[in-house]
Specification:
The protein has one domain. It is built from 6 helices and 4 strands; from the N terminus they run ααββαβααβα. The protein is α/β, with parallel strands linked by helices and about 220 residues long.
Length: about 220
């Protein structure tokens, strides 16, 4: 009897479903903006302690936390990064904003290079596929050569499809993610307050994000 109960209990887990969109909206989204709130104790929680002045880099734990949360946010929502927990001087606020922007602009640039590399490699594979196809049908009397060219044709064609369609789509998605992060609005609060902003404040934030994104193009 206990075994039967365990099976029923297991089936309840198998059939359980959640509305992930509702959870995301409840947790992150407020009106037309998505918020990621980060609680820090000091400057080094954001900027790596190994950085030198003028060449500041982000703390990797901070980056991981930021990206883990951003992963759940739909791309149609502009992100507001709310840094709370301590007071930063205007100079340090400026450094933090610039470091976050530089970091994700660099990541965005890396994905652009990946796309360019993907394009070049895909073109090479396409050309090799065409050459293999021509050679495959050019020597029908030679069974060994025709078979070899047929194998090369299959290999280059499938590799081209994998690189150009699947891998390229992954890179494009990653690029969009970094573009969303590179244009997010960073605000500072000494203490976290879960208050709704006014419609005017929301419009100003969205306008700032759009203006910043346009200036980076």
């Amino acid at each position: 009897m206990p075994i039967l109960k365990n099976h029923k209990y297991l089936n309840r887990f198998k059939n359980k479903k959640v509305d992930i969109e509702r959870y995301v909206k409840d947790y992150y989204v407020e009106n037309n903006l998505a918020y990621i709130s980060v609680n820090v104790n000091c400057y080094e929680d954001i900027i790596s302690k190994y950085s030198v002045v003028g060449y500041e880099d982000l703390n990797q734990d901070f980056v991981n936390y930021l990206e883990e949360n951003a992963e759940y946010i739909p791309l149609e929502y502009p992100i507001v990064l709310e840094i709370t927990g301590t007071r930063f001087s205007k100079e340090r606020q400026k450094t933090i904003k610039e470091s976050i922007s530089d970091y994700y602009n660099m990541k965005l640039g890396e994905t652009q290079e990946e796309l360019n590399s993907n394009t070049r490699f895909s073109l090479l594979l396409f050309i090799l596929s065409v050459i293999s196809g021509v050679l495959c049908f050019s020597f029908p009397e030679s069974q060994y050569l025709s078979t070899a060219m047929d194998m090369f044709l299959c290999f280059f064609t499938w590799t081209f499809a994998d690189i150009f369609w699947l891998e390229r789509n992954d890179i494009k998605e990653k690029k969009i993610d970094y573009a969303q992060l590179s244009s997010m609005k960073v605000i500072f609060r000494e203490k976290f307050v879960d208050d709704e902003i006014t419609e005017k404040e929301e419009e100003k934030i969205i306008e700032d994000i759009i203006s910043y994104s346009a200036s980076e193009e």
